[in-house]
Protein 1
Amino acid sequence: MVYLDRILKACESVGIATRTIDVPGEDAVSQERELGAAILRLNEDPEVAGIIVQLPLPAGVPLRTVVDAIDPMKDIDGLHPLNAGLLRLGYEGFVPATAHAAMEMLKRSGIAVEGADAVVIGRSPVVGMPVAFMLTMANATVTVCHSKTRDLADKTRTADIVVVAAGRPGLVAGGMLKPGAVVIDVGINLVDGHVVGDVDFASARDVAGAITPVPGGIGPLTNALLLAHLIRAAQRQTGGASGGSR
Ligand code: NAP
């Protein structure tokens, strides 16, 4: 709900009409059916330019069948296999807004990505893998870490850029970083009623050359880029522009 409220407010602030659909269903089978049917109705609705599915899905509802149902032209968070494939091949399409935000943060901050050693912690299709692909396309040398990675600190300590998207508060602390490293904290975790990232900001800020805070870092940029994707989707559907999300 943290994401959804902020996305709805961001849309409202720029005059974009939104529709929130709570999908009914008593069990995973009926929820999957209802969710699929709702997405198909939105695909066919000419007044709807973009669709996002709020994750995580209810237990037992497979992500695959849900994202497959979204019209790739309305898939503004880049989850449909067509858009994921376009990203993988380096072609233009819709990319996940959070991954786009991580790259945009580096770009707008003047961080040199080409030739940099980058570590991405997390390999989800929504954040970790798209970021890893985009960093690779931008000529970084990328190591992807995950829950089975042995000695995470050994990997992060040599990285020029560390992107953390694990959903584990305090996973990365200052002692795990190379002095001057750039740290992008994608994590959003609720701890004792407070939103925190995956990085221990207090220790990391003294070592890092640049670091994104949580809240206030990647989250707001993600929402802004989601709206930019939506506008591009609307333009493409009305023949106003041919570009994708990058
Ligand atoms: P996810 O699907 O749960 O994936 C988490 C990834 O982290 C997995 O690849 C997992 O490894 C890895 N991981 C978990 N524990 C680890 C550990 N101890 N060491 C190393 N890797 C570990 O989560 P997600 O959807 O990618 O989201 C990640 C975080 O980003 C969450 O906090 C989420 O709330 C946040 N998020 C933020 C935004 C935003 O706009 N800022 C948007 C989306 C998500 P395995 O693959 O081995 O399980």
Note: The two ends are 27 Å apart (CA to CA).
Protein 2
Amino acid sequence: MTAVLIDGKAFAATLREQVAGGVAQVQKQGLTPGLAVVLVGEDPASQVYVNSKKKACAEAGIASFETLFSSDVTQVGLLSEIARLNADDTVHGILVQLPLPGHIDAQAVINAIDPAKDVDGFHILNAGKLAVGQDGLVPCTPLGTLLLLKHHLGNLAGKHAVIIGRSNIVGKPMAQLLLKESCTVTVCHSKTADLPAEVKRADIVVAAIGQPEFVKADWLKQGATVMDVGINRIMRDGANKLVGDVDFAAAKEVAGAITPVPGGIGPMTIACLLRNTLQAACAIRGVAFPL
Ligand code: NDP
């Protein structure tokens, strides 16, 4: 069996067009959504992410602002920039690019962001809203994974979802979102006793581990839907290559459907960031969210 390929790139392009349409609509009401990105240090991967976010904003008609700090910025310096952005009426979304240098308390910085502008959905208030099932800003990667899953499978109620990874940015919010869709959810992590046996029971597998090609084909139930969140850079045949957390070549022979890496969850993350920025701008200005 060869799995259906879940094309995140195509679905993300559609979502980005919808966001651009929504932005054009709210602009007629005098609202131009604005996203501010704060980048600390010279990490090349972070710079690539920030540049692609800027480009995506421009294409959607969202204004983008950028603050660059050297890696020796103090916590106080960073917090004062967050306070400035919180007070800026042209900024509706604030994103602090992670990871931050070790001397900075990342959670304190995130919790200093106005929760109404927390488009990453990492603020403790938005995490709490998600946990109790209230509407708020939802982290982009799990939101993108959910939208793609629903587009592919429709109603998720009653399905057994196994999430591998329990981070605050992917695994935990993913579990909350799938619970809200009435899935039966199992969350696995590095201390899970028998990971292959847990994965074998899954109708839906979400892999968010950070280990290249870690999930093997013979762990999967025949026909399972596999969402591979992982992004790992490896050397293969003398060339740099991006691979996911799932052994894609073998898994696609067992799964019913699978996301590729690249071109699966990654593009959905940026599309959801734009969507969250539009949502935040509408909520702040009391304008109906057009999507
Ligand atoms: P973290 O490192 O924060 O979390 C990894 C999780 O995987 C932890 O919960 C850890 O368990 C678990 N884990 C690690 N090793 C094992 C193992 N051997 N068996 C079972 N579980 C294990 O990573 P993130 O959640 O931030 O990211 C996960 C992956 O997703 C990465 O590849 C990252 O690059 C990618 N990513 C992709 C995005 C996208 O846009 N597509 C966005 C964000 C992340 P424990 O808690 O016990 O340590």
Note: The pocket of NDP is lined by residues 141, 164-167, 169-171, 188-192, 195, 208-211, 229-232, 245, 265-266, 269 (CB under 6 Å).
